[in-house]
UniProtKB/TrEMBL annotation:
<feature type="binding site">
    <location>
        <position position="174"/>
    </location>
    <ligand>
        <name>GTP</name>
    </ligand>
</feature>
<feature type="binding site">
    <location>
        <begin position="130"/>
        <end position="135"/>
    </location>
    <ligand>
        <name>GTP</name>
    </ligand>
</feature>
<dbReference type="InterPro" id="IPR023179">
    <property type="entry name" value="GTP-bd_ortho_bundle_sf"/>
</dbReference>
<dbReference type="GO" id="GO:0005737">
    <property type="term" value="C:cytoplasm"/>
</dbReference>
<dbReference type="GO" id="GO:0003924">
    <property type="term" value="F:GTPase activity"/>
</dbReference>
<dbReference type="Pfam" id="PF01926">
    <property type="entry name" value="MMR_HSR1"/>
</dbReference>
<comment type="function">
    <text>Required for a late step of 50S ribosomal subunit assembly. Has GTPase activity.</text>
</comment>
<dbReference type="GO" id="GO:0006412">
    <property type="term" value="P:translation"/>
</dbReference>
<keyword id="KW-0963">Cytoplasm</keyword>
<keyword id="KW-0547">Nucleotide-binding</keyword>
<dbReference type="InterPro" id="IPR019991">
    <property type="entry name" value="GTP-bd_ribosome_bgen"/>
</dbReference>
<protein>
    <recommendedName>
        <fullName>Ribosome biogenesis GTPase A</fullName>
    </recommendedName>
</protein>
<dbReference type="InterPro" id="IPR016478">
    <property type="entry name" value="GTPase_MTG1"/>
</dbReference>
<comment type="similarity">
    <text>Belongs to the TRAFAC class YlqF/YawG GTPase family. MTG1 subfamily.</text>
</comment>
<feature type="domain" description="CP-type G">
    <location>
        <begin position="14"/>
        <end position="178"/>
    </location>
</feature>
<dbReference type="GO" id="GO:0005525">
    <property type="term" value="F:GTP binding"/>
</dbReference>
<dbReference type="InterPro" id="IPR030378">
    <property type="entry name" value="G_CP_dom"/>
</dbReference>
Amino acid sequence: MTIQWFPGHMTRAKRQIEEKLKLIDVVFELLDARIPQSSRNPMVDEITASKPRLVLLNKADLADPALTAEWSSYFRAKGLATHVIDANAGTGVKELASKAKELLQEKIQRQVDKGMKPRPVRALIVGIPNVGKSTLINRLAGRNIAITGDRPGVTKGQQWIRFGGELELLDTPGILWPKFDDPIAGFRLAATGAIKEEVLHIDEVACFVLKVLVENYGSVLKDRYGLEGLPAELPDMQAAIDVLESIGKRRGCIVSGGHVDFEKAATLLLRDLRSGKLGRMTLESPDNA
Ligand code: G4P
Protein backbone atom coordinates (compact mmCIF):
# COMPACT_ATOMS: atom_id res chain seq x y z
CA MET A 1 0.00 0.00 0.00
CA THR A 2 1.44 3.39 -0.95
CA ILE A 3 0.15 6.34 0.97
CA GLN A 4 1.11 9.94 0.34
CA TRP A 5 1.55 11.36 3.81
CA PHE A 6 0.77 14.98 4.47
CA PRO A 7 0.48 16.71 7.86
CA GLY A 8 -3.30 16.29 7.78
CA HIS A 9 -2.99 12.54 7.19
CA MET A 10 -0.53 12.20 10.03
CA THR A 11 -2.83 13.99 12.43
CA ARG A 12 -5.71 11.77 11.32
CA ALA A 13 -3.63 8.58 11.60
CA LYS A 14 -2.52 9.57 15.09
CA ARG A 15 -6.10 10.29 16.14
CA GLN A 16 -7.35 6.99 14.70
CA ILE A 17 -4.71 5.05 16.60
CA GLU A 18 -5.57 6.90 19.80
CA GLU A 19 -9.21 5.85 19.31
CA LYS A 20 -8.21 2.23 18.81
CA LEU A 21 -5.96 2.29 21.88
CA LYS A 22 -9.06 2.74 24.02
CA LEU A 23 -10.19 -0.72 22.92
CA ILE A 24 -7.02 -2.72 23.50
CA ASP A 25 -4.61 -3.91 26.19
CA VAL A 26 -1.35 -4.18 24.29
CA VAL A 27 0.29 -2.75 21.15
CA PHE A 28 2.26 -4.90 18.69
CA GLU A 29 4.70 -2.52 17.00
CA LEU A 30 5.72 -4.16 13.74
CA LEU A 31 9.17 -3.35 12.32
CA ASP A 32 11.12 -4.68 9.36
CA ALA A 33 14.01 -6.68 10.83
CA ARG A 34 16.22 -5.58 7.91
CA ILE A 35 15.80 -1.92 8.86
CA PRO A 36 14.49 -1.82 12.44
CA GLN A 37 15.40 1.81 13.00
CA SER A 38 14.36 3.22 9.63
CA SER A 39 11.04 1.32 9.65
CA ARG A 40 10.12 2.85 13.02
CA ASN A 41 7.71 5.71 13.07
CA PRO A 42 9.40 8.72 14.72
CA MET A 43 6.44 9.36 17.03
CA VAL A 44 5.47 5.82 17.98
CA ASP A 45 6.69 6.15 21.58
CA GLU A 46 4.53 9.20 22.07
CA ILE A 47 1.47 7.88 20.22
CA THR A 48 1.33 4.52 21.98
CA ALA A 49 2.61 5.67 25.40
CA SER A 50 -0.64 4.74 27.18
CA LYS A 51 -0.30 0.98 26.52
CA PRO A 52 2.30 -1.74 27.03
CA ARG A 53 4.07 -2.54 23.78
CA LEU A 54 5.75 -5.52 22.16
CA VAL A 55 8.23 -4.76 19.37
CA LEU A 56 8.00 -7.36 16.61
CA LEU A 57 10.97 -7.73 14.28
CA ASN A 58 9.17 -9.08 11.21
CA LYS A 59 10.59 -10.45 7.93
CA ALA A 60 13.30 -12.12 9.99
CA ASP A 61 13.60 -14.72 7.22
CA LEU A 62 15.16 -11.98 5.04
CA ALA A 63 17.32 -10.39 7.75
CA ASP A 64 20.83 -11.19 8.96
CA PRO A 65 20.28 -13.40 12.06
CA ALA A 66 23.32 -12.03 13.91
CA LEU A 67 22.11 -8.45 13.48
CA THR A 68 18.54 -9.41 14.38
CA ALA A 69 19.92 -10.70 17.69
CA GLU A 70 21.79 -7.40 18.15
CA TRP A 71 18.67 -5.37 17.42
CA SER A 72 16.65 -7.47 19.88
CA SER A 73 19.20 -6.67 22.58
CA TYR A 74 19.16 -3.01 21.57
CA PHE A 75 15.38 -2.69 22.01
CA ARG A 76 15.38 -4.72 25.24
CA ALA A 77 18.06 -2.41 26.64
CA LYS A 78 15.63 0.42 25.95
CA GLY A 79 13.05 -1.39 28.09
CA LEU A 80 10.97 -2.66 25.16
CA ALA A 81 9.88 -6.30 25.04
CA THR A 82 10.94 -7.69 21.66
CA HIS A 83 10.08 -10.76 19.65
CA VAL A 84 11.32 -12.01 16.27
CA ILE A 85 8.83 -13.27 13.67
CA ASP A 86 8.31 -14.20 10.04
CA ALA A 87 4.65 -13.43 9.40
CA ASN A 88 4.76 -14.98 5.94
CA ALA A 89 5.75 -18.42 7.16
CA GLY A 90 4.25 -18.00 10.62
CA THR A 91 7.51 -18.47 12.51
CA GLY A 92 7.26 -17.03 16.03
CA VAL A 93 3.61 -16.10 15.60
CA LYS A 94 2.06 -18.64 17.94
CA GLU A 95 4.10 -17.24 20.85
CA LEU A 96 2.41 -13.84 20.53
CA ALA A 97 -0.34 -14.64 23.01
CA SER A 98 2.08 -15.66 25.75
CA LYS A 99 4.38 -12.68 25.01
CA ALA A 100 1.41 -10.32 25.29
CA LYS A 101 0.30 -11.94 28.53
CA GLU A 102 3.77 -11.51 30.01
CA LEU A 103 3.43 -7.77 29.48
CA LEU A 104 0.12 -7.75 31.34
CA GLN A 105 1.13 -10.17 34.06
CA GLU A 106 0.38 -7.85 36.99
CA LYS A 107 -3.01 -6.80 35.65
CA ILE A 108 -3.98 -10.42 34.97
CA GLN A 109 -2.80 -11.46 38.45
CA ARG A 110 -4.93 -8.75 40.05
CA GLN A 111 -7.97 -10.10 38.18
CA VAL A 112 -7.18 -13.65 39.28
CA ASP A 113 -6.75 -12.48 42.89
CA LYS A 114 -10.23 -10.97 42.75
CA GLY A 115 -11.59 -14.30 41.55
CA MET A 116 -12.16 -13.03 38.01
CA LYS A 117 -11.49 -15.16 34.96
CA PRO A 118 -9.10 -13.18 32.76
CA ARG A 119 -10.50 -12.40 29.34
CA PRO A 120 -8.35 -12.75 26.21
CA VAL A 121 -5.68 -10.08 25.77
CA ARG A 122 -6.74 -7.52 23.16
CA ALA A 123 -4.04 -6.30 20.79
CA LEU A 124 -3.56 -3.72 18.03
CA ILE A 125 -0.90 -3.99 15.34
CA VAL A 126 0.75 -0.72 14.36
CA GLY A 127 3.44 0.01 11.79
CA ILE A 128 4.41 1.87 8.64
CA PRO A 129 3.10 0.63 5.26
CA ASN A 130 4.51 -2.61 3.85
CA VAL A 131 6.01 -3.83 7.10
CA GLY A 132 3.71 -6.88 7.12
CA LYS A 133 0.65 -5.80 9.15
CA SER A 134 -1.92 -7.42 6.83
CA THR A 135 0.18 -10.55 6.50
CA LEU A 136 0.34 -10.91 10.28
CA ILE A 137 -3.38 -10.24 10.75
CA ASN A 138 -4.22 -12.83 8.08
CA ARG A 139 -1.80 -15.27 9.64
CA LEU A 140 -3.47 -14.87 13.05
CA ALA A 141 -6.94 -15.00 11.49
CA GLY A 142 -6.01 -18.18 9.62
CA ARG A 143 -7.65 -16.79 6.49
CA ASN A 144 -7.40 -13.85 4.10
CA ILE A 145 -9.49 -10.95 5.22
CA ALA A 146 -9.75 -7.57 3.55
CA ILE A 147 -7.65 -5.20 5.60
CA THR A 148 -8.64 -1.55 5.48
CA GLY A 149 -6.70 0.67 7.77
CA ASP A 150 -8.13 4.04 7.05
CA ARG A 151 -11.86 4.22 7.41
CA PRO A 152 -13.86 6.98 8.98
CA GLY A 153 -15.47 6.31 12.34
CA VAL A 154 -12.74 3.89 13.26
CA THR A 155 -14.38 2.25 16.19
CA LYS A 156 -17.40 1.30 14.09
CA GLY A 157 -17.44 -1.91 12.13
CA GLN A 158 -14.22 -3.24 13.56
CA GLN A 159 -13.95 -6.89 14.37
CA TRP A 160 -11.89 -8.93 16.74
CA ILE A 161 -9.87 -11.79 15.39
CA ARG A 162 -9.53 -14.58 17.88
CA PHE A 163 -6.27 -16.44 18.09
CA GLY A 164 -6.52 -19.43 20.37
CA GLY A 165 -8.42 -18.64 23.56
CA GLU A 166 -6.00 -16.03 24.85
CA LEU A 167 -5.49 -13.35 22.21
CA GLU A 168 -7.85 -11.10 20.28
CA LEU A 169 -6.60 -8.79 17.59
CA LEU A 170 -8.29 -5.74 16.13
CA ASP A 171 -8.77 -6.46 12.41
CA THR A 172 -7.78 -2.93 11.35
CA PRO A 173 -4.12 -2.09 12.00
CA GLY A 174 -2.82 1.32 12.98
CA ILE A 175 -0.99 2.70 9.96
CA LEU A 176 1.87 5.03 10.83
CA TRP A 177 3.99 7.17 8.55
CA PRO A 178 7.66 6.41 7.88
CA LYS A 179 10.63 8.69 8.53
CA PHE A 180 10.89 11.53 6.03
CA ASP A 181 13.59 13.79 7.34
CA ASP A 182 16.53 11.37 7.32
CA PRO A 183 17.83 10.76 3.76
CA ILE A 184 19.67 7.55 4.70
CA ALA A 185 16.49 6.12 6.24
CA GLY A 186 14.78 7.03 2.96
CA PHE A 187 17.31 4.94 1.01
CA ARG A 188 16.85 2.01 3.38
CA LEU A 189 13.06 2.22 3.12
CA ALA A 190 13.27 2.38 -0.68
CA ALA A 191 15.77 -0.50 -0.83
CA THR A 192 13.43 -2.83 1.06
CA GLY A 193 10.39 -1.70 -0.92
CA ALA A 194 8.70 0.12 1.96
CA ILE A 195 8.44 3.28 -0.11
CA LYS A 196 7.80 2.88 -3.79
CA GLU A 197 7.86 5.08 -6.87
CA GLU A 198 8.57 8.07 -4.76
CA VAL A 199 11.18 10.74 -4.66
CA LEU A 200 14.27 8.55 -4.76
CA HIS A 201 15.69 7.44 -8.06
CA ILE A 202 16.16 3.70 -8.44
CA ASP A 203 19.81 4.02 -9.62
CA GLU A 204 20.66 5.96 -6.48
CA VAL A 205 18.91 3.41 -4.28
CA ALA A 206 20.86 0.63 -6.00
CA CYS A 207 24.14 2.49 -5.43
CA PHE A 208 23.28 2.87 -1.74
CA VAL A 209 22.60 -0.88 -1.54
CA LEU A 210 25.88 -1.68 -3.30
CA LYS A 211 27.79 0.38 -0.75
CA VAL A 212 26.22 -1.63 2.10
CA LEU A 213 26.81 -4.92 0.29
CA VAL A 214 30.45 -4.23 -0.52
CA GLU A 215 31.17 -3.06 3.02
CA ASN A 216 29.24 -5.71 4.95
CA TYR A 217 28.47 -8.65 2.69
CA GLY A 218 31.50 -8.65 0.39
CA SER A 219 31.21 -12.18 -1.00
CA VAL A 220 27.58 -11.80 -2.12
CA LEU A 221 28.40 -9.80 -5.26
CA LYS A 222 30.99 -12.37 -6.28
CA ASP A 223 28.67 -15.31 -5.62
CA ARG A 224 25.59 -13.84 -7.31
CA TYR A 225 27.05 -11.79 -10.16
CA GLY A 226 30.58 -13.17 -10.52
CA LEU A 227 32.21 -9.82 -9.68
CA GLU A 228 35.87 -10.24 -8.79
CA GLY A 229 38.41 -7.90 -7.23
CA LEU A 230 35.97 -5.54 -5.53
CA PRO A 231 37.42 -3.02 -3.08
CA ALA A 232 36.61 -3.29 0.65
CA GLU A 233 34.52 -0.13 0.43
CA LEU A 234 33.02 2.20 -2.16
CA PRO A 235 34.35 5.67 -1.37
CA ASP A 236 31.98 7.63 -3.61
CA MET A 237 28.99 7.46 -5.93
CA GLN A 238 31.19 6.87 -9.00
CA ALA A 239 32.67 3.73 -7.42
CA ALA A 240 29.13 2.41 -6.80
CA ILE A 241 28.09 3.27 -10.38
CA ASP A 242 31.08 1.28 -11.65
CA VAL A 243 29.92 -1.78 -9.68
CA LEU A 244 26.35 -1.35 -10.97
CA GLU A 245 27.75 -1.15 -14.50
CA SER A 246 29.64 -4.41 -13.97
CA ILE A 247 26.44 -6.10 -12.76
CA GLY A 248 24.60 -4.76 -15.82
CA LYS A 249 27.27 -6.16 -18.12
CA ARG A 250 27.27 -9.56 -16.41
CA ARG A 251 23.48 -9.76 -16.58
CA GLY A 252 23.01 -8.49 -20.13
CA CYS A 253 21.29 -5.23 -19.17
CA ILE A 254 22.47 -3.53 -22.36
CA VAL A 255 20.82 -0.89 -24.53
CA SER A 256 21.54 -0.09 -28.19
CA GLY A 257 25.08 1.13 -28.65
CA GLY A 258 26.27 -1.46 -26.16
CA HIS A 259 25.80 0.73 -23.10
CA VAL A 260 24.58 -0.58 -19.78
CA ASP A 261 20.93 0.07 -18.97
CA PHE A 262 21.46 1.32 -15.41
CA GLU A 263 17.79 1.36 -14.54
CA LYS A 264 17.42 -2.28 -15.56
CA ALA A 265 20.54 -3.27 -13.62
CA ALA A 266 19.27 -1.38 -10.56
CA THR A 267 15.84 -3.04 -10.82
CA LEU A 268 17.46 -6.46 -11.04
CA LEU A 269 19.68 -5.82 -8.00
CA LEU A 270 16.79 -4.53 -5.88
CA ARG A 271 14.55 -7.43 -6.91
CA ASP A 272 17.28 -9.86 -5.89
CA LEU A 273 17.72 -8.07 -2.56
CA ARG A 274 14.00 -7.92 -1.73
CA SER A 275 13.34 -11.52 -2.63
CA GLY A 276 16.23 -12.76 -0.50
CA LYS A 277 18.22 -14.04 -3.49
CA LEU A 278 21.29 -12.20 -2.22
CA GLY A 279 20.97 -13.99 1.10
CA ARG A 280 19.77 -12.77 4.47
CA MET A 281 20.93 -9.24 5.10
CA THR A 282 20.25 -6.25 7.30
CA LEU A 283 20.87 -2.74 6.05
CA GLU A 284 21.50 -0.99 9.35
CA SER A 285 23.19 -1.84 12.60
CA PRO A 286 22.35 -0.75 16.15
CA ASP A 287 25.91 0.60 16.39
CA ASN A 288 24.90 3.63 14.38
CA ALA A 289 21.29 3.88 15.58
P1 G4P B 1 1.29 -3.94 5.34
O1 G4P B 1 -0.05 -4.52 5.62
O2 G4P B 1 2.03 -3.57 6.59
O3 G4P B 1 1.27 -2.81 4.36
O4 G4P B 1 2.20 -5.08 4.67
P2 G4P B 1 1.76 -6.45 3.96
O5 G4P B 1 1.23 -7.41 4.96
O6 G4P B 1 0.93 -6.14 2.78
O7 G4P B 1 3.17 -7.02 3.51
C1 G4P B 1 3.98 -6.35 2.55
C2 G4P B 1 4.82 -7.36 1.81
O8 G4P B 1 5.71 -7.97 2.75
C3 G4P B 1 4.02 -8.51 1.19
O9 G4P B 1 4.71 -8.91 0.00
C4 G4P B 1 4.17 -9.63 2.21
O10 G4P B 1 4.04 -10.90 1.64
C5 G4P B 1 5.59 -9.38 2.68
N1 G4P B 1 5.83 -9.94 4.03
C6 G4P B 1 5.13 -9.70 5.15
N2 G4P B 1 5.68 -10.36 6.19
C7 G4P B 1 6.75 -11.03 5.71
C8 G4P B 1 7.73 -11.89 6.29
O11 G4P B 1 7.76 -12.17 7.50
N3 G4P B 1 8.69 -12.38 5.45
C9 G4P B 1 8.72 -12.07 4.12
N4 G4P B 1 9.70 -12.59 3.39
N5 G4P B 1 7.81 -11.26 3.54
C10 G4P B 1 6.84 -10.75 4.33
P3 G4P B 1 4.06 -8.81 -1.40
O12 G4P B 1 2.62 -9.17 -1.35
O13 G4P B 1 4.95 -9.49 -2.35
O14 G4P B 1 4.08 -7.29 -1.61
P4 G4P B 1 5.24 -6.47 -2.22
O15 G4P B 1 6.55 -7.11 -1.82
O16 G4P B 1 4.97 -6.51 -3.67
O17 G4P B 1 5.06 -5.14 -1.59
